[in-house]
Automatic annotation (TrEMBL):
Coiled coil: none annotated. PANTHER family: PROTEIN YCEI. Residues 13-179 form the Lipid/polyisoprenoid-binding YceI-like domain. Pfam families: YceI. Belongs to the UPF0312 family. SUPFAM superfamilies: YceI-like (SSF101874). This is Polyisoprenoid-binding protein. The lineage of its organism: Bacteria, Bacillati, Actinomycetota, Actinomycetes, Mycobacteriales.
Length: 182
């Protein structure tokens, strides 16, 4: 994390506010549109050290996935996709931060279905605000693209005329608000 960004964030533990955050995704559907979804049960922290160092950990409860379609959501929870019974939590743990202009990139290990792969999040720092009486809050937007097959989600649902029901590339889009806890 940049010194200037770290200097605007007080040292301590910043906790994700799930009521003001979204952990979402999108994937190609029938090769002509995109299905969007999100996880509704998640938690995480951003720890800023006295020296300006930073680390982050996030957990998502897989059974909380929603695409606003009950039948599809039920299928996504099965062993064909996330296997929520065997692997109830997906995680992201940072391994490094890099300055990129006014923003930064966060490297980390993303784990789905027990498979961990390195990913890099492109992060836009939206700033810090004094908050609404409960202490300072900060906002971030982040995104990355992963390949579902890299995480063992290899179901093939071919279409009769070519192509597939779902694409391999998943775009993860995060809008996160954190509050300083300590």
């Amino acid at each position: 994390m940049s010194t200037s960004t770290a200097n605007t964030l007080a040292a301590g533990t910043w906790v994700i506010d799930p009521s003001h955050s979204t952990l979402g995704f999108s994937v190609r559907h029938l090769m002509v549109s995109k299905v969007r979804g999100r996880f509704t049960d998640f938690s995480g922290t951003l720890v800023i050290g006295e020296d300006g160092s930073a680390s982050t950990d996030v957990e998502m409860r897989v059974e909380s996935i929603t695409t606003d379609n009950e039948q599809r959501d039920g299928h996504l929870r099965t062993a064909d996709f996330f296997d929520a019974e065997q692997f109830p939590v997906a995680t992201f743990k940072s391994t490094g931060f890099r300055v990129v202009g006014d923003d930064f990139e966060v490297d980390g290990e993303f784990t789905i279905r027990g498979v961990s792969k390195p990913v890099t999040l492109e992060v836009e720092f939206l700033g810090v605000n004094a908050g609404m009486g409960n202490g300072p809050v900060a906002g971030f937007e982040a995104k990355t693209v992963i390949n579902r097959r890299d995480f063992g989600i290899t179901i093939d649902m071919p279409l009769p005329d070519g192509g597939a029901v779902i694409g391999d590339k998943i775009t993860l889009s995060l809008q996160v608000e954190v509050g300083l806890q300590s």
